[in-house]
Write a structure and sequence with these properties.
The protein has one domain. About 15% of the residues lie in helices and about 30% in strands. Strands 2, 3, 4, 5, 6 and 7 form a six-stranded mixed beta sheet that branches. Strands 1-8 form a two-stranded antiparallel sheet.
Length: about 170
């Protein structure tokens, strides 16, 4: 997916550019490429960006640590304001930022990168709580034997269990 020179959008019919998407992102473990369409419309002082896309990603369950596939379908919309970059020397070192200022901006004579924008949208659409199944039991931990047979569950704990036995036994 190529970058889009923002002033060239004004030359497009209805100031709109439609891009067919069929790509993979190396940073994202997907089973299928991201397929869909991104529409960029120049509205004078802002860009209106919309997309319809879907893919299947491979995630790791947070409970049992097994890999599973998850279908991601998204239809994001975003307004990106066109604003000239301010002179960094004219900005104060510290300033308070209001909620109204938390918007995306691009220079009016700059470029829009649809691949980067779509990658960010797919990442935002991923579930925060990644669970392979609602009834996922989690990691299977073997039961520890009776009180007299206290074998460590994991061999990495053997040094700790040896120390515990030394502390429990009376000193000669």
């Amino acid at each position: 997916m190529d970058k889009v020179y923002i002033p060239q959008l004004l030359q497009q019919p209805a100031k709109t550019l439609k891009l067919e998407i069929d790509t993979s992102f190396p940073e994202l473990n997907t089973l299928t490429p991201v397929r869909g369409e991104v529409t960029v419309t120049h509205q004078g002082t802002y860009l209106e960006v919309q997309a319809v896309a879907e893919t299947i990603v491979t995630l790791t369950c947070h409970r049992c640590l097994q890999s599973y596939n998850h279908r991601v379908s998204l239809a994001p919309q975003e307004l990106i304001w066109l604003e000239a970059d301010p002179d960094p020397t004219a900005l104060p070192l510290e300033r308070e930022v209001g909620v109204d200022e938390l918007v995306e901006t691009l220079p009016p004579n700059g470029y829009f990168y649809p691949a980067t924008w779509l990658y960010e949208q797919v990442c935002l659409a991923l579930p925060q709580r990644q669970v392979c199944d609602a009834n996922c039991p989690g990691i299977a931990v073997p039961e520890v034997g009776e009180a007299g047979d206290s074998k460590p569950v994991d061999s990495r704990w053997s040094a700790l269990s040896q120390l515990q036995r030394q502390l429990q036994s009376p000193d000669p």
